[in-house]
Amino acid sequence: MIYGSSPWVQRSWDVRAALNFSLGGTGSGMLLVLAFSDVGGDTALRGAILLALALVAAGLAAVWLEIGRPARAVHVLLNPFTSWMSRESLAAVVLLAVGAGAAATLRVELLIASALAALAFVYCQGRILQNGRGIPAWREPTVTALIVVTALAEGAGALVAVGALARAPMRVALAWCAFAVIARAWAWSAYRRRVTGTVPGPGLAVLDRVGAVLVAVGTLAPLALLLAAALVPPAATVAGVLAGLASLAAGWVFKIALVTRAAYNQGFALPQLPVRGARGTFHRGEARP
Amino acid sequence: MTRWVMIADLRRCVGCQTCTAACRQANATPPGVQWRRVLDMEFGEYPAVKRVFVPVGCMHCDEPPCMQVCPSTATRKRADGVVTIDYDLCIGCSYCAVACPYQARYRTDAPAFAYGEPTAAESEEFDAARIGVATKCTFCVDRIDAGTARGLVPGVDPDATPACVNSCIAGALHFGDRDDPQSNVSRLLAENRHFRMHESLGTGPGFYYLWDREAEAA
User: Which of the ends of chain B has fewer CB neighbours closer than 10 A, N or C?
Assistant: First the structure.
């Protein structure tokens, strides 16, 4: 039997830190999809790359606003040997530099290189959470896969929404979006099974609420809308925008909740209670030894 | 080698919080920051109720999760097991705080004083380097180092011993070298049944809790 005090929600990271996961994940996902899809037109491609880079930069700016000593932010690069936060920062530097080169030249090699940096960046984000060992909902190893595919779904969703608005041809991006939301639902299912019994009850309740959003709004709705966009051409624009936004919004809601409201620690636990005083069982009227 | 560890005898702790007050005085921590806390836990239902007081704080782990995640290398572990923070390197990202399974780390973003305006003592002890960075129990490492430099023995000589241990009115807190088989803490660990907090996480805490006599438990 374990005795202990109730867990509580961590207060060290708030929505600013969560935004780094959401904005950075979306930007990274966009780059990944862009590198392996069919977004047509130089202007559209350049605009999409720049939007992705802006999202990653905005995420980093959001978390920069949270740190206690922003003037020392460059120190974040000092420990790539063991810290996934340092590795994430290094990946971000590469991502932004190579991505800027890709936007300037539109060379396929640079676009693919920036996508690989984006993959490294978002993988580091997953490992950042996984190494937050004080938080049971984060330290579950499957959280890394969940973060990566969530980024992919967000990025694909953002691209589909923007592309639909611009009426740009992007059949491969639509396929990416469908694949990503299914992969995210699968990753969520695997993660949810694993955290049963490790995440405190209130944290599980939060996860279940946002998990339902992830499945209904982030998976079923986009799939239905993507199908509508393919089968009913007059509705393609509206359906595409809605599908993309649903995939994007569900990912953001989920990750913000994971980083903030679901982030219960495990409190303190005593495997044994102290044995004090005389031993043995005493009955009324008996003399103590 | 030397491995400094602390022991809390749960049978003796009376929850007086003197260790908390002594730590706050010795380390000049601001309001709300308690590097040495004492949890007050109740178990069971009347009349079979147990109340347990559990001192907690930085466990100075063998494998500190806080050190592994620290992006700035501000958190380090000395050869004697004491986990330290370099306030000049720390960026205040709080990653260590969420990585610590013992909720031992604090970050104060603005100067705070007990009565609003700083008292004379608070003005004298205020350290701007601690604003916006992670802070935690240091095992009073300055006292250990100054004491050992004078040939004193931490855990035995008060001048080389952490303030919380010195102040304990019940003799519940102990400090010493786990690697010395003749030390006070080695004897206590040999003579008593003990556990460490969240041991399954593999952090190897340098903080032990005694809960029963070894001979009686056999």
Answer: C
Query: Is B206 a residue whose pLDDT tops 50?
Result: yes
Written as six digits, the tokens of B204 are 């190897």
Among the partner residues B54, B94, B216, nearest to A279 by beta-carbon distance = B216
Note the pLDDT tens digit of each residue in B95-140.
999 999 999 999 999 999 999 999 999 999 999 999 999 999 999 9
From start to end of B57-198, where are the E strands? 75-77, 83-85, 106-107, 134-135, 173-177, 192-195
Q: Of all helices (H) and strands (E), which one includes residue A119?
A: helix A108-130
Structure tokens at B50: 């147990």
pTM of the model: 0.93
Contacts of B89 in chain A (CB under 8 A): 72, 75, 78
Residue B5 to chain A, least CA–CA distance (Å): 19
Q: What single letter denotes the amino acid at residue B194?
A: H
What's the first-to-final CA gap in chain B, in angstroms? Answer: 31
Taking only the tens place, the pLDDT of each residue in B49-77 is 889 999 999 999 999 999 999 999 999 99
In a 3-state reduction of DSSP, which class is residue B206? coil
Q: CB distance from A193 to chain B under 8 Å?
A: no
- Among the partner-chain residues A89, A270, A274, the one whose CB lies closest to the CB of B71 is A89
Structure confidence at residue A278 (pLDDT): 64
Residue A207 amino acid letter: L
* B21-51 tens-digit pLDDT: 999 999 999 999 999 999 999 988 888 888 9
Q: Which residues of chain A have pLDDT under 50?
A: 282, 285-289
Residue in chain B closest to A135 (alpha carbons) equals B98
Inter-residue long-range contacts of B77-82, CB under 8 Å, 24+ positions, other chains counted: B78/B141, B79/B1, B79/B2, B80/B1, B80/B2, B80/B3, B80/B4, B80/B144, B81/B2, B81/B3, B81/B4, B81/B5, B81/B206, B82/B4, B82/B138, B82/B139, B82/B141, B82/B144
Could you tell me how many CB contacts below 8 A there are between chain A and chain B?
150
For A193, other C-beta atoms within 10 Å of its C-beta total 9
User: Please, what is the Cα angle at B147 between B155 and B102, to 5 degrees?
Assistant: 50
**E strand residue ranges, chain A:** 3-5, 268-270
